[in-house]
Amino acid sequence: MQANDVRVLKSAAIPTFAVGVVAVAVSLLAVGGKGALGAAIGTLLVGVFFSISVVAVSYAARVSPQMMAIAAMVSYLVKVVAIMVVLASFRDTTAWNTQAFAWTVVVCTLVWTGFEVRAFMKTKLLYVDPEAGVPGKGDS
User: Fold this and answer.
1) Does the keyword Transmembrane apply (predicted)?
2) Domain residue spans in the chain?
């Protein structure tokens, strides 16, 4: 994983987990222990899914720019489908409060996405390789 990718991951993960802690506290006060458990699981779900996505795109970027784009699209699709499956699977659970869980997933997803976009916009990436040789000038 490149340094830029680690910065993006940290820039999105830290605010997301901070919002998750707030969601756990609010759910605990509003709904009780089951609400706090639902919010904690929702925060963990978002953190794990989005971290895997960043790692997959980072790995694909080392292969080629085309693979990076494909990995980003596929990981996004898999992420959305997987979250929908998890939400549908646990819709009728009584182990935790499903509304606290669902709202935490939505809020943490928005926070992660927003801070990930912010991190990418602040990252200084070169558009050309400054150490590349010029064809026809004897450089290889």
Assistant:
1) yes
2) 3-121
